[in-house]
Design a protein that fits this description.
This protein is of the alpha/beta class. The protein contains 19 helices and 24 strands. Strands 1, 2, 3, 4, 5, 6, 7, 8 and 9 form a nine-stranded mixed sheet that branches. Strands 13, 14, 16, 17, 18, 19, 20, 21 and 22 form a nine-stranded mixed sheet that branches. Strands 10-11 form a two-stranded antiparallel ribbon. Helix 3 packs antiparallel against helix 4 and helix 16 packs parallel to helix 17. It is globular. It starts with 10 loop residues before the first helix and ends in a 7-residue tail after the last helix. The structure holds adenosine-5'-diphosphate (2 copies) and magnesium ion (MG) (2 copies). One adenosine-5'-diphosphate binds next to helix 12. GO terms for molecular function: ATP binding; ATP hydrolysis activity; oxidoreductase activity. It holds the Pfam family Fer4. This is ABC transporter related. Keywords: ATP-binding, Nucleotide-binding.
Length: 537
């Protein structure tokens, strides 16, 4: 593409069109000769500025620069980077003032980093002690309540799950008094309710402070942001920041795949949210019949209503963390025997992608995929390898894969098996926005073409809305009681789930994608009044 390596094999996939205006003087930061280069930067502004883009194009680098952790080197690799030079470079723009103040410590940036797993190693004491210590805003009680941290206050950091740690990290950042707040991927590991509660806190901070947030869950990003910057590029090679767009048009542009002003295509074809007619079950063969099942594990008690699953359908499973979704998947997969109830009268073959993926496979990605399917068919190449971008990592050792790579390989491996039922537990975890869109399309296509049916557990509602024909909704009390519904038609299921979340949806007029109504807006009030939380048309 003329920017990185001369004949870049990925240019045709990622970028169609020539970002020819990307000249060296536009580089804001480079990690070294022939290493990643960042073109452009964002200007923080009032409200929430969202950043939308695939992994590896410099989103975290931007937050690191703006929060003063990294001093941008402007591609001058021979000298130590200095703010003086940076200030000169941005002369006459708002960023000049920003870096002047940042260098004199007249701006206090607060940063919730993307990677929070190091926190337990550096923070001593209990969750409550830390949060009390950083409570400069005197909002301890409010934030603890909204982020549901009350029963974690006495815990030490090494006893927290991913989702718990995330909420503590968001609380710690939000309690501090600063001038500008940076939240890097706040919804990772959180369930739907927790995502919206975190978003509410972030929006509250933005009432009188500037906020920048990186987010891959498009419904959360949409709800959270006032403006967004789309980023594009070639992962690990370079990333480009585009001008700010109003959130709605920005997300629609991204889904469309073509950035008109920049003349850049980020995807070959648009993602369209079609209104799918409800499945006519009468002429579809039954695949799986299960009765009401129950299971007790320690103090946790699970009951799920029975159901019948048909060929070609995708059943989305929705519900909070800790409420038995994975346990139900394991019961269906035959890994856990239910105390009461039976799963199937006849033999069905199950392909299962667990939530927590084991990395103990000895060999390469190619070895792994070859052990489950014939990967040399054109169908396999076009439906799995290509959309999941596995070409580049085919010869990597499975043990050395990153979270997102491992997830894509696990999804590919699950979908490759010849089975009647595919059980896919939290496929969107660790995936970036683009991979989520691609995976959802792959899952939907495979369901339409295969003889099998699918159960998909996931917290990304845009993803679920796109792939699912019906929903099973879980509710109860985390760690104590879980109740799963029978498979419900899409509207009843979504309605039941959204009612528990207390959010209402509308359809975007242009793309058909789901959008969350503003709490208390006329539409929100009306939909709640008539009990229609999902879009009604
Ligand atoms: P994103 O947040 O969009 O996923 P990052 O800003 O984390 O992207 O990283 C962009 C690219 O820069 C990555 O592909 C990575 O290869 C490279 N990179 C990030 N941090 C460093 C570093 N400290 N040293 C060298 N390269 C880095
Ligand atoms: P979800 O997938 O909805 O987040 P899980 O099915 O993983 O929930 O777990 C539901 C509850 O069951 C959790 O509180 C978990 O701690 C508990 N649990 C899961 N497996 C076991 C087990 N083997 N022994 C005791 N408790 C368990
Ligand atoms: Mg990042
Ligand atoms: Mg689970």
């Amino acid at each position: 593409c003329g920017i990185c390596v001369k004949r870049c094999p990925f240019a045709a996939i990622n970028i169609i069109g020539l970002p020819g205006e990307l000249t060296e003087d536009k580089i804001i930061h480079s990690y070294g000769k022939n290493r990643f280069r960042l073109y452009g930067l964002i200007t923080p502004r009032d409200g929430v500025v969202g950043i939308l883009g695939p992994n590896g194009v410099g989103k975290s680098t931007i937050l690191s620069i703006l929060s003063g952790i990294t001093t941008p080197n402007l591609n001058n690799l021979d000298e130590e980077p200095k703010y003086e030079t940076v200030i000169k470079r941005f002369s006459g723009t708002e960023l000049q003032t920003y870096f002047e103040k940042l260098s004199k410590k007249e701006i206090i940036p607060i940063h919730k980093p993307q990677y929070i797993d190091a926190l337990p190693k550096v923070v001593k004491g209990t969750v409550g002690e830390l949060l009390k210590k950083v409570d400069e805003k005197r909002m301890f009680n409010e934030i603890i309540e909204v982020l549901e941290l009350n029963n974690l206050l006495d815990r030490s950091f090494d006893q927290l799950s991913g989702g718990e740690l995330q909420r503590v990290a968001i609380a710690a950042a939000s309690l501090r008094e600063g001038d500008i707040y940076y939240y890097d991927e706040p919804s990772s590991w959180l369930d739907v309710r927790q995502r919206f509660n975190a978003a509410k806190i972030i929006r509250k901070i933005a009432e009188n402070k500037k906020v920048v947030a990186v987010e891959h869950d498009l419904i959360v990003l949409d709800y959270l942001s006032d403006n967004i910057h789309i980023m594009y590029g070639i992962p690990s090679a370079y990333g480009v920041v585009t001008h700010p767009r109003a959130t709605r048009t920005g997300i629609n542009t991204y889904l469309d795949g073509f950035l008109r002003e920049e003349n850049i295509r980020v995807r070959k074809s648009p993602i369209v949210f079609e209104k799918r007619p409800p499945i006519n079950y009468t002429n579809r063969p039954e695949l799986l019949n299960y009765s009401k099942v129950s299971k007790t594990l320690g103090n946790f008690n699970l009951t799920v209503e029975g159901g019948t699953i048909h060929k070609g359908e995708v059943v989305g499973i929705l519900g909070p963390n800790g409420i038995g979704k994975t346990t139900f998947a394991k019961i269906l997969a035959g890994i856990i025997k239910p105390d009461n109830g039976t799963v199937s009268a006849k033999e069905v073959k199950i392909s299962y992608k667990p939530q927590y993926i084991a990395t103990d496979f000895d060999g390469t990605v190619r070895d792994l995929l070859m052990s489950v399917a014939n990967i040399n068919t054109s169908f396999y190449k076009s439906e799995i390898i290509k959309p999941l971008s596995l070409e580049k990592i085919m010869d990597f050792e499975v043990k050395n894969l990153s979270g997102g790579e491992l997830q894509r390989v696990a999804i590919a491996s699950c979908l490759s098996m010849d089975a009647d039922i595919y059980l896919i537990d939290e496929p969107s975890a660790f995936l970036d926005v683009e991979q989520r869109l691609v995976v959802s399309r792959t899952i939907r296509r495979m369901a339409d073409e295969k003889e099998g049916a699918m159960f998909v557990i996931d917290h990304d509602i845009l993803f679920q809305d796109y792939i699912s024909d019906r929903f099973i909704v879980f509710s109860g009390e985390a760690g104590k009681i879980g109740k799963g519904s029978a498979p419900l038609d899409k509207r009843s299921g979504a309605n039941k789930f959204l009612k528990e979340m207390n959010i209402t949806f509308r359809r975007d007029a242009e793309t058909g994608r789901p959008r969350v109504n503003k709490e208390g807006s006329q539409r929100d009030q009306y939909q709640k009044e008539i009990g229609e939380y999902y879009y009604t048309e």
